[in-house]
Design a protein that fits this description.
4 helices, single chain, about 100 residues
Amino acid sequence: MKYFRAISVLEGISLITLLFVAMPLRTYADMHMAVTWVGWIHGILFLIYAAATVVASHLRGWSVLKWLLVLIMGVVPFGFVYVDWMIRRELTRELQHA
């Protein structure tokens, strides 16, 4: 799960960078390539994140609703913070019951 958490954080940071750095640079500084490059990076990371959600869901036995929630959080700004919290809570519960 640590790899999934890392992918989630990287994807979330790329989304934040796209929305709050690259897009304002394009709009206010006429730097169109910022969105092009950050958009490509974010797109690739999102595809990796989407595949990782499927793998994590299968390995952890998540319901379809939980998987969809985790997947949708990938397109919500700062959604990765909630996903990380949710996964840490799940892992903590497992350690307490073990």
